[in-house]
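Section 3.1: Structural characterization of target chains.
Under the original work plan, the team committed to producing a structural model for every single-chain target entering the pipeline before any wet-lab resources were allocated. The record below documents one such target. The sequence was received from the expression subgroup and is listed exactly as submitted; it comprises 82 residues.
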Amino acid sequence: MLNKDCHHNCNQGNCPFAQDSNNANRYVCLKCGVEREINRYPSGFGSIVMLLLSLFIASQLLINWEKQDNQPQSEPAISSLR
């Protein structure tokens, strides 16, 4: 991970990281140039997970709605008018 040839204090975890102005997830050590990525997965990964989760929830709601529609409905009680 860290450059073994680095002659700075970076190998003890003291890297002064700076954020890349073009990529908010990328940080670079100012002393040795070691790169770190905050989000290891591309942004599309989270979108796919959210899509699958929303499809699962929608299917569960649809199944429950269909079960309620298929249940026999009780007839209302007829009250006698006297």
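The mean pLDDT is 76.
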